[in-house]
Amino acid sequence: MADTASRLTALAEDLLGVPLPVAIRAWDGSEAGPPGAPVLVLRSRRALRRLLWKPGELGLARAWVAGELDVEGDLYDALDRLAGLLWERGGDGAATPAARAVRAARAAGDPRLRSAARTLLRLAGPLPPPRPPAEEVRLRTGPLHTRRRDRAAVSHHYDVGNDFYELVLGPSMVYSCGYWTEDSTLEEAQTAKLDLICRKLALRAGDRLLDVGCGWGSLAVHAARAYGAPVVGVTLSTEQAAHARKRVADEGLTDLVEIRVQDYRDVRDGPYDAVSSVGMAEHVGRVRYREYAGHLHALLGPGGRLLNHQISRRPEKDEAAYRVDDFIDRYVFPDGELAPLGRTVGTLEDAGFEVRDVEAIREHYALTLRRWVANLEDHRAEAERLTSPGRVRVWRLYMAASAVSFERNRIGVNQVLAVRTPDDGASGLPLRPRVWRERGEG
User: Fold this and answer.
1) Which pTM was predicted?
2) What's the pLDDT tens digit per position in 66-85?
C-alpha cells in the first residue's frame, strides 16, 4: 500500500486506454502522474469509496464537497485537462470517453474490469461511504416545474444569504454575465450589460417593464433610474425580494419599482411594453418552455419587446442531455435544464414572437465567472462563516467548471431580442441591426 497513487493511476489508464492528464496524490502520501501537472489529491479512502458506490460525476462531487478530494495547483488547468475525458460527450453524443470505456468493458465481460474493481475495493476498504454532504439536495415536492417544486428549487439556490452573494458577485449583485471590454472591471461590465438590455428593449420614460426573475433588483433599479421606466420585478426568492426592496427604497425609486415574490405564471397585469428575462429561463424546463414563451407573449402589448438572456447547451441527440449535470442538479440548480439556441428561438417563434436579433456572448460569461471565483477565494474565510465550508467548495467548483465549459464552447449564453409584432408589421426597432438607440435619443 506504500504506492497507492501509482496503482490508482495504472488502473485508471488501463481502463481508459489513455494516459491520465493530471497527477494523483493518495492518502498515504504517494504521488504519480505527469510532472508539472495539477495534482488530484485523495485525502482519504472515503473519496475512493464514494467513487466506487457512485461512479462518475456524482461520486466525484460528493468527495469534493466533503473535502475528501481536492486539486493542488491551477484548478482551471485541472478542469480543462479533465473535461475531454470526464464531461464532454463523444462525436456520437452517447457518452463521455470515460463512460464509453467502462461500458465497453462491462459489455464484453472484460476481466480487466473485474480485476480493477477487486483492487479498488481493497484499496478503498470494506466500509460503505458516509452519507452525502449536507449541501446535497433531492427535491421531493411533486412533478418537475410545478409552482411548488420550482419555489423549492429557487429557495435552495438563492436563499443562502444575501451577504454571501455580495461577497461573490460584488456590489452590483448581478447574477448573470457582464458585458466586457478588455479593460473593464466587474462592476463596469455588469453596468454595461444592464444598459445594453435597456437599449435593446428600446426603453423610454413611461414604458412598463416586467423583469422576470429580477434577482436582487439590479436591472429594475437601472431601468427606472436611467430610463424612467416603471418596473415590476418578480422573483420566487424571499431573500432576493427583501434585498431588492431595500435597494429600491434607498434609491428613492419606490414610485417606479415594485418587487413581488411571485411566480411569473401568476403575473396577470399586462400589457407591458417590455419584458426582460435574464438568467431565469434555465429554470423553466423543456416541458414548460412553450407555456413560458406564450405567457410572456400574452403579457406584452402590440410592439412589445422581449429580451431573453439564457444559457444554452450544444445540440445533442439524447434528450436527457439537456438536464444539467448531476453535480449541478444536486448541489447548485435543482431541476435546471439547458436547451440549444435553435430550440429556444423556435419555441419563441412558435409562441408568436418575431425574433429580431441574437447575440452570442459566451466568452463574456467565462470572464465573469473567473472574477466571481477570485472574489470567493479572496473572501473564503468569511464565505465559510456565512454558509459552510462545503457550500464554498460547491461554489468554487461550479463556477470554475462553468468558466471552462464556456471557454471550451461546451455551453453558451445568448441574448435573444423578440417582438410581439403588431398586425401592421411595424416592429418599432432600428433599421440597422445592433444600432441600439443610446440613452436620451428620440
Assistant:
1) 0.91
2) 999 999 999 999 999 998 77
